[in-house]
Design goal:
Helix content: 40-55%
Largest sheet: 5 strands, antiparallel
Shape: elongated
Strand order of the largest sheet: 2-1-5-4-3
Structural class: alpha+beta
Bound molecules: adenosine-5'-diphosphate
Order of helices and strands: HHHHEEHHEEEHHEHEEHEEHHEE
Number of helices: 12
Radius of gyration: 40 Å
Number of strands: 12
Length: about 400
């Protein structure tokens, strides 16, 4: 191969030497001398042009080839160690020749030199590896791991070989793990959300239809029943529009969640204004809202309308769910070197500890019936959390059964 290519590259020299020989022949030079001269020129130029480079390069190239043949793993290993994607390198009999630190983190400790089945027992994975070894074609499949933590992966196996190499030429196989757990979680959240929203809307819709049918049918001429049903229908329609408003609020908040607010807002008049707006509700519920406000301005960086929503949701919840405590204390605190805090303390029944971490999930309610009877949508605290995330503020919930609940916003 090497000689043939050298000869191909040397053909211009061959042509030049032949031309010189023909010119010499026609200028009546001695035939034998011309042939000898021609041969000498061709050979010497070949020797100078390729001999030296062949001597200098050939061993070097062979050395490099030998080196890369001898240590293919070493090169790959260094790169794969830096990757945060779990990677195993397997031999054709599925022996693990290497695993990177990410693989050890994802799958737990396991030995190099052991068979793949010692760590991944799923027969599907072993079949996939066998198929790739037999066909030389990459393959992939989904696989869940329970330990060290619950994860879902797309496992992909591919042979390490040059393009166009024959089937069976590969000696190494790369098994990679793409973690899709987060994607799955988001998918589930999205479908749960759609299911919950549809369910929440379907209930009042079904009740509206039922009453319309009753008014059209059995209660057609009954003015008293009609008036009663129309009242219920108005309630249901109002509930649906509250729900749609909350859903729109959430989606608007999601759209701008990455844009931090930039207004300076004085919380003192804002909190007092919300308290005044909620006073009729508190009076209806028999709750006394007590204000504990500091002197002067309490400024934070934020969006006024969104902060009104936060304060309103928290005070309203305290009045509704802490109604039996009859007193709701509202605190605004500002101390040198300390973050501004806004707290709402009720003396209601409290929230069982297992519910507290989930309160800000959409549609999460400690008691669905209780929330519905209090005109809740289950979205109030989800909206509060979204707003506070955008404001880089925290919501802290402390609750004691039988004593009450404190919701604190720390800016
Ligand atoms: P809702 O529209 O149902 O009020 P929220 O998201 O505002 O929805 O609140 C979620 C749930 O948290 C409520 O259904 C209620 O069970 C519980 N909750 C909220 N605030 C309080 C509180 N101050 N005391 C007791 N439970 C509360």
């Amino acid at each position: 191969m090497r000689m043939a290519s050298r000869f191909r590259r040397g053909w211009p020299i061959f042509v030049v030497a032949t031309l010189l020989a023909i010119i010499a022949w026609f200028s009546q030079a001695d035939g034998l001398m011309v042939a000898a001269g021609w041969a000498l020129i061709v050979l010497s130029i070949f020797a100078i042009r390729f001999g030296s480079s062949a001597v200098a390069n050939a061993p070097a190239k062979e050395e490099v080839a030998e080196e890369t043949d001898a240590q293919p793993l070493a090169e790959i290993v260094t790169a794969y160690n830096a990757l945060d994607i779990p990677i195993l390198i397997l031999s054709s009999d599925a022996t693990v020749l290497f695993h990177n630190p990410a693989a050890e983190k994802a799958l737990g400790e396991f030995e190099v030199g052991s068979h793949l089945s010692a760590r991944l027992r799923s027969p599907g994975i072993l079949d996939m590896v066998r198929e790739t070894v037999a066909t030389g074609e990459p393959n992939q499949m989904e696989h869940s791991e329970r330990l060290p933590s619950e994860r879902v992966y797309i496992l992909r196996i591919a042979p390490v070989m040059e393009e166009g190499a024959p089937v069976g030429a590969a000696r190494l196989y790369v098994l990679s793990f793409r973690d899709i757990s987060e994607l799955r979680r988001l998918d589930r959240m999205r479908s749960d959300f759609v299911a919950n929203a549809s369910h929440e809307l379907r209930t009042p819709l079904a009740s509206l239809r039922g009453f319309i049918e009753t008014i059209q049918g059995p209660a057609k001429g009954d003015a008293k029943a009609q008036e009663k049903f129309l009242g219920i229908m108005l309630d249901q329609a109002t509930r649906m529009s509250r729900l749609v408003d909350d859903l729109l609020s959430l989606s608007r908040l999601e759209l701008k969640s990455h844009i931090a607010p930039d207004q300076r807002v004085d919380l003192l008049p804002l909190v007092c204004h919300v308290r005044d707006a909620l006073q009729p509700l508190a009076t209806d519920l028999g709750v006394d809202i007590r204000m504990h406000m500091p002197e002067g301005k309490v400024e934070v960086t934020g969006d006024r309308d969104e902060l009104v929503q936060v304060v309103e949701n928290l005070i309203e919840n305290a009045c509704k769910y802490g109604q039996e405590g009859e007193i709701v204390d509202v605190y605004l605190t500002k101390q040198e070197g300390q973050p501004v805090e806004f707290s709402v303390v009720d003396r209601g029944p409290g929230i069982p500890a297992e519910h507290v971490p989930r309160l800000t999930e959409r549609f999460y309610r400690v008691s669905v019936a209780d929330s519905r009877s209090k005109k809740g949508t289950g979205l109030g605290l989800a909206i509060v959390k979204h707003i506070l995330t955008r404001h880089r503020a925290r919501l802290i919930v402390k609750s004691e059964i039988g004593k009450g609940t404190t919701f604190t916003v720390r800016f």
